[in-house]
Structures are given as structure tokens and as C-alpha cells.
From TrEMBL:
GO molecular function: 2 iron, 2 sulfur cluster binding; adenosylmethionine-8-amino-7-oxononanoate transaminase activity; dethiobiotin synthase activity; pyridoxal phosphate binding
Lineage of source species: Bacteria, Pseudomonadati, Bacteroidota, Sphingobacteriia, Sphingobacteriales
InterPro entries per the UniProt record, alphabetical: Aminotrans_3, Aminotrans_3_PPA_site, BioA, PyrdxlP-dep_Trfase, PyrdxlP-dep_Trfase_major, PyrdxlP-dep_Trfase_small
Protein's UniProt name: Adenosylmethionine-8-amino-7-oxononanoate aminotransferase
Reaction(s) this enzyme catalyzes, per UniProt: (8S)-8-amino-7-oxononanoate + S-adenosyl-L-methionine = S-adenosyl-4-methylsulfanyl-2-oxobutanoate + (7R,8S)-7,8-diammoniononanoate
SUPFAM superfamilies with a match to the protein in the record: PLP-dependent transferases
Taxonomic source organism: Pedobacter cryoconitis
Domain of life: Bacteria
UniProt-annotated site: Participates in the substrate recognition with KAPA and in a stacking interaction with the adenine ring of SAM, residues: 23
Purpose: Catalyzes the transfer of the alpha-amino group from S-adenosyl-L-methionine (SAM) to 7-keto-8-aminopelargonic acid (KAPA) to form 7,8-diaminopelargonic acid (DAPA). It is the only aminotransferase known to utilize SAM as an amino donor.
Similarity comment: family membership: Belongs to the class-III pyridoxal-phosphate-dependent aminotransferase family. BioA subfamily.
Length: 429
């Protein structure tokens, strides 16, 4: 494009010429909002209009946008060491982050493997578990997962996610997975029986702990998950706990793992890992998993890596983000959001348009009651999306479920405004 054209056209017009957006039907896509800057829980568009980032920019921003501490640390790092191959080489940011992270995780987590997003963190977790059995000459080939799970958009991650309209074009290419319901007091005995019946076939069980995010913030109990995990341990089914979404304070504690007594074999992290500033993925594992790859036989190596594995800038951002997470101020903010969400649920729980209002930590979800069928959900979803955007609030309803999970620094005033506008929408739609 010529520089004259660039001067005449708006950013969104130039966008429409060259860009294909994620999760977007481009035929009748709404004109994207061009964001020029962000700070704290605020986003600012080209015209200077402010939006409250009520969903932490797709669940990643935890300390607020453009946090000066993270910015300073990353800026110093890029002047010192920007990137280096991570096979045969190492660096301070990667080692420091691994040490910091392992200190916060269940004791059995002993090793850190780096990738660059949540999907690849899951791919590595699956490969670790599958090859764990392979390396020991055991034929455990099946994967167990929850209905409605979401673990990412690459092929392995798609395979273990619940099958849906999103995965339909690829179903023929996805590997077979055994699905079970999330546990409840009523079905737990039956789930355990199902697992026992096939345990010698199962390589691993992969699950989102406590909250199934993409499925519509579906929540289930820690007590039941604990019981299921204990049973998997007994049946020697390896557990992959996907904390890509639930990690770093989202559930009110550092990790969903902190709500549980049992520890998984493998854990996945991304999203809030760098405070949402840069792409990075982490897969951690137990000593037992790691040891299954130690061998004089070269074929027992974990042959996996990405060009940007353990990028020093991303590791630095993550290290800085963990420093912030551990500060008393941040912990107080997390508690404050948990408390205020609970108060809001109390206030609107009985509203006639509320089918269900639920909360896990800083995650609040409200299911709209609708008499009509599912196609109406799409219309309602778009209505609500526009409604909130017009009010200066970024929300992204999942069907008839709206949810908020703000950056922890959001002010009481902004949170009140979001709550009030939700009440306003409940009166209208
Ligand atoms: C978002 C998400 C992923 C995928 O992470 P990406 O970085 O988007 O690839 C995996 N698992 C869970 C639980 C997620 O919420």
C-alpha cells in the first residue's frame, strides 16, 4: 500500500484489507475497535473512548495493562539478551522463572518445559504422558477428558477438547478420546467405576480444574475433583491439570491446585503467566515423568521444541508478574474482587432473567434465562456484546453466559459500574 493511501484510510479500513481475525466470521464481522493504548483496567480507542477491560483481554491480563514494573524489567532485558537458542544453551530469566514457579506449585512438580502458548503447553503435556508409557514399553494409548473441555486449537489440544461446532471440520483428523462428565456428589461413584474398567488402557486424564472456561464458565467442586484425582492416582492414570486459565490468582488462590489435596503429574500454564504481556507457555512435571525419559537410548528423548522456547523477554515478564502476584497489595485486591463478586451474586441471584449466577474466585458468570431455543442465544450474545461495548465495557459473552474476570487492579468504582450495567442489561434483555 502506498504511503498516500495509508494517510487517507482509517486503521480499521486498512485492517479490513489485509487482516483475518481469530474466531471471526469475516463476511459480516463487526468493524473492529482500534485500541491505541491501555493502562490498568482501561483500554483506549482511536477516538480516546475508554473501555473497562472486564475480561482481562481474553483472560490474560492480571495486573493491569502496561504495568510499569513489568515494562521496566522487559525493557532492561531486551537491551541485555533478547533471544538465544535454548537447546544446548540457557539463561538467567529461564532458570529464575522455573525456580520461582516451582516454589509455588505442588511439591511433586520438579521440572519446567517451555513453549509459547497454552495450546503448545498442552501438546507437550500430552506428549510427556504418551511417551512416558511408550518409553517403558507399555501400551496405554487412550486419553480421558471431560465433556465440554477446552484445551486449545492445535491438533492435539483440539483432540482432547470437547467436540463441538468449532472442531467439526477436523473431527476426522482428531485422535479418539474417552469423555466423562465433570464430577458431582451424585455421579462420582459411577465415574470411578468407569475409570477402573478401562484404566489399563488409559495413558492420561486431562482436565480444566474447577472451571471449564470456554464451555461457558461451567464450575464444579474441588472436593469431587480431589476424589477423582485420588482414584486416578490409585489406577495409575497420569493426570494433566490444565491451569492455562485458572493459574495465577484467578480462582482466588495462586492456582486451582491450592484448592486441592491431590497433586497432578503434569501441569500447564500460559495466559496470566506473563501477566498477559507476552506469549509464553509452561508445562511442569513430576520427577517420575522426567525420569522416564532418561536413557542411554536416544529414542527415549522428548523431541519437542519451538524457535522461541524460553524466550528471555517472555521469561522476564513472567518472573516480574510473579513478583507482583506475591505482593500483599495484589493478594488484597484478589480478595476484594472475590468478596465483591459474592455480594453482587447475592444481589442479582434471584432476578427473573438469571438462570444461574456462579463464581469461582475472581471469575463471575451469569447465565441468562431464555425461553427460546439456542439460535436466540446467538442474537442475545451479539446484543449483549454491543450493549456493553457501547457502555464502555469490554465483555465477550459465551452464548447466553456473560462473565467478568477483571485485572486484579480494577477500582471499586469501575467494578460497581460494570455490576450496574449488568443489572441494566438484565432489565432490558
Ligand atoms: C486458552 C486456553 C488454552 C489455550 O491457550 P492458547 O494460548 O490460547 O493457545 C488451553 N487451555 C485452557 C484451559 C485455556 O483456557
Amino acid at each position: 500500500m502506498s504511503s498516500i493511501e495509508q494517510d487517507i484510510l482509517s486503521l480499521t479500513e486498512r485492517d479490513a484489507r489485509v487482516i483475518w481475525h481469530p474466531y471471526t466470521q469475516m463476511l459480516h464481522a463487526i468493524v473492529p475497535t482500534a485500541i491505541v493504548s491501555a493502562s490498568g483496567s482501561d483500554l483506549f480507542d482511536e477516538d480516546g473512548k475508554r473501555y473497562i477491560d472486564a475480561i482481562s483481554s481474553w483472560w490474560v491480563i492480571i495486573h493491569g495493562h502496561s504495568h510499569p514494573y513489568i515494562a521496566d524489567r522487559v525493557s532492561a532485558q531486551i537491551r541485555k539478551l533478547d533471544q538465544v537458542i535454548f537447546a544446548g544453551f540457557t539463561h538467567q530469566p529461564a532458570v529464575e522463572l522455573a525456580e520461582k514457579l516451582l516454589d509455588l506449585l505442588p511439591e511433586n512438580q520438579q521440572k519446567v518445559f517451555y513453549t509459547d502458548n497454552g495450546s503448545t503447553a498442552v501438546e507437550v503435556a500430552l506428549k510427556m504422558c504418551m511417551q512416558y508409557w511408550h518409553n517403558q514399553g507399555q501400551s496405554r494409548k487412550m486419553v480421558l477428558a471431560f465433556h465440554n473441555g477446552y484445551h486449545g486449537d492445535t491438533f492435539g489440544a483440539m483432540s482432547v477438547s470437547g467436540r463441538s461446532a468449532w472442531t467439526a471440520p477436523f473431527d476426522a483428523y482428531l485422535f479418539e478420546v474417552i469423555y466423562i462428565d465433570t464430577p458431582t456428589a451424585e455421579n462420582i461413584a459411577d465415574l470411578k467405576k468407569q475409570i477402573s474398567a478401562m484404566s489399563d488402557q488409559l495413558a492420561c486424564f486431562v482436565y480444566e480444574p474447577l472451571v471449564q472456561g470456554s464451555a461457558g464458565m461451567l464450575m464444579y467442586g474441588a472436593k469431587e475433583l480431589d476424589e477423582l484425582m485420588k482414584h486416578c492416582r490409585k489406577e495409575q492414570v497420569l493426570m494433566i491439570q490444565d491451569e492455562v486459565f485458572t493459574g495465577f490468582g484467578r480462582t482466588g488462590k495462586h492456582f486451582a491446585a491450592n484448592h486441592l489435596n491431590e497433586a497432578p503429574d503434569v501441569m500447564c500454564f500460559s495466559k496470566g503467566l506473563t501477566g498477559g504481556t507476552m506469549p509464553l507457555g509452561v508445562t511442569t512435571c513430576s520427577e517420575d515423568i522426567y525420569n522416564a525419559f532418561l536413557s542411554k537410548d536416544k529414542l527415549k528423548t522428548l523431541f519437542h521444541g519451538h524457535s522461541f522456547t524460553a524466550n528471555p523477554l517472555a521469561c522476564t515478564a513472567a518472573s516480574a508478574s510473579i513478583d507482583l502476584l506475591l505482593m500483599e497489595d495484589t493478594q488484597r485486591n484478589i480478595e476484594r474482587i472475590c468478596r465483591r463478586h459474592a455480594g453482587f451474586i447475592h444481589r442479582i441471584g434471584e432476578h427473573m432473567r438469571v438462570e444461574s449466577a456462579r463464581q469461582t474466585g475472581t471469575i463471575l458468570a451469569i447465565e441468562w434465562r431464555t425461553e427460546t431455543g439456542t439460535s436466540y442465544f446467538d442474537d442475545l450474545r451479539n446484543l449483549l456484546y454491543d450493549y456493553f461495548l457501547n457502555k464502555g465495557i469490554l465483555m465477550r459473552p459465551l452464548g447466553n453466559v456473560i462473565y467478568i474476570l477483571p485485572p486484579y487492579c480494577i477500582s471499586d468504582e469501575d467494578l460497581d459500574y460494570v455490576y450496574e450495567e449488568i443489572e441494566g442489561a438484565l432489565e432490558l434483555y
